[in-house]
UniProtKB/TrEMBL annotation:
InterPro entries: AB_hydrolase_3, AB_hydrolase_fold, GDXG_lipolytic_enzyme. Residues 1-132 form the Alpha/beta hydrolase fold-3 domain. The keyword Hydrolase applies. The keyword Hydrolase applies. Signal peptide: none annotated. It comes from Sula dactylatra. The lineage of its organism: Eukaryota, Metazoa, Chordata, Craniata, Vertebrata. This is ADCL4 protein. It holds the Pfam family Abhydrolase_3. It comes from the Eukaryota. GO terms for molecular function: hydrolase activity. The gene is Aadacl4_3. Keywords: Hydrolase.
Length: 159
């Protein structure tokens, strides 16, 4: 489903695109998808000469949940000095935070298809543990202890 955009990104950025198929939620809960993407990327980077790829041309990219996975893989690899550094990460409408579904972007776009606010929260719960029974608490923001909210308000707040 993403071959055309992968080819476009590879061509326009003169980079290599490796599309990783990963296990999906809710059948495979966290961290299965992350481990699949990390393992595939590490394998590729360790064997980069075998593929005839310039180590300086590798970009990690993903959309939606894949954007979340690309960000997580990029962060993990940033601390791995035995591997080549990634050239960049491209995150296309990534799901990056589940602390607060009441931030302005969620409020402004709550009724915009394709990913309604409630659906975004539902998918996060499916990804984490496959149980959406506490969806209302997540939408209200009562799923995060106040001390954690205070600790992260510098980065995740309406301001």
């Amino acid at each position: 489903s993403h071959e055309k955009i992968c080819r476009y990104i590879a061509r326009e950025s003169t980079s290599v695109v490796v599309s990783v198929g990963y296990r999906l939620a809710p059948e495979h809960k966290y961290p299965a998808a992350y481990e699949d993407c990390l393992n595939a990327t590490v394998h590729f980077m360790k064997n980069i000469e075998h593929y005839g790829v310039d180590p300086a041309s590798v970009i990690v990219c993903g959309d939606s949940a894949g954007g979340n996975l690309a960000a997580a893989v990029s962060q993990t690899l940033a601390g791995r000095s035995e591997l080549p550094r990634l050239r960049a990460q491209i995150l296309i409408y990534p799901g990056l935070q589940a602390l607060d579904f009441n931030l302005p972007s969620y409020q402004q776009n709550r009724g915009v298809p394709l990913l309604f606010r409630e659906r975004a929260a539902f998918y996060v719960l499916q990804y984490l543990n496959g149980d959406a029974s506490n969806l209302e608490e997540v939408l209200e923001g009562s799923h995060i202890p106040i001390d954690i909210k205070l600790n992260y308000r510098k980065w995740v707040s309406p301001d």
